[in-house]
Structure formats: structure tokens, C-alpha cells
Amino acid sequence: MTTTLQDCHALDAQDPLAPLRDHFSLPAGVIYLDGNSLGVLPKAAAARVADVVAREWGTDLIKSWNTASWFDLPQRLGNQLAPLIGAGKDEVVCTDSTSINLYKVLSAALNIAREDSPARKRIVSERSNFPTDLYIAEGLCKERGLELVLVEPEEIAAALTSDVAVLMLTHVNYRTGAMHDMAAITAAAHAHGILCVWDLAHSAGAVP
Fold this sequence. Notes:
Layout: H1 5-14, H2 43-57, H3 64-67, H4 73-81, H5 98-116, E1 122-126, H6 131-144, E2 147-151, H7 156-159, E3 164-170, H8 182-191, E4 195-199
Parallel strand pairs: 1-2, 1-3, 3-4
């Protein structure tokens, strides 16, 4: 079956999500697919940022921690983002950047593994994992004298050996959109006494 340009236009005309494009500042004729690097600017964001800077920061100053509910922002934003990655209420909190959070979580996992099983000296990850995630893992391995083992997706199960401390994976591949079976892989890792660290940064919008 051949798909024609006319077929594509017909599908576009029936797309229930098409009106959402009007909520974003996007040049005419541009199809933007690089959201994993930088999302498109929502039209409402510019005015909201201006209000936060001029009123909440400029006028209300420190009072905004209470009057603008800055204290609760990490939890409130987390609850708004939770449905995008299949999480429940109060399971997500907004804190630092992905890289900083990964460093903290992976460090904590390695600390736990070191206390429970000092002989475990490896971090296993996917060769096509997001580059920054691998940089974080490489840095921690150098700092702690550990080994980073990179494998293909189909090799993950075989890599879950007794000398592995942490399995670090990204749920959805940032280039291909391929999605891991998180529950099955986590269960397999736990069965071998291995801790799991999952990066869900690219799962938003990809989880059914």
C-alpha cells in the first residue's frame, strides 16, 4: 500500500491533537522533533515568566515563598508531570537537573551496594544510553575505582552477574523511542541482588 501526500494531508486534517500546535511559538513550516534537547516555547510561558520576574520576584520578594507558594512548587509540578511518565500522585518531585539528580541517585545506589556487597564493582548500562548519563557513570567509576560495562539491549540479561552493583538504564531511548520493559528488567536485576537506576527523562509523551 502506497501512502500519498494527499493521504498525509487527510490524516493531518483528522488529527485531534493538531489544535495544540497553536499553543506553541513555532515558525511556520517547521516540524520540530528535538524535544529531548530543547522543548518548543509555550506561548503562555513568556507572559508567565515576565509576571514571576516582575511581580513575584521584583515586588513581593521573599514573601513569594508563601504568597506565590514557591515552597510547594517541587511537589505541585511533580504531580502535574507524573501522568506523563505513568507515575502516581506524590511519586514525582522537581529538583535539580537530570544530570545532577542522576549523580545523586547513582551515588546513593553505589553507597548502598558497597555496604551490602563490597565485591560488586561494576555498573552496567546500555551502549546507546543518553551520553550525559554515561558521562556521570564514567565519572563515578573513576572516582570510586569501579568498572562501567556497556552492552546492547539484548545483552542486558546476560550482563546481570554477581559482580554488578547497579544497572543504570534509560526507559525510553532518546533517538529511537524504543522502550524497555522496566518491570521485567528490574525484577531480573533484583533477583541477582542488583540495584536499578532508571532515567525517565525521555519517557514523557512516550508512555502509553
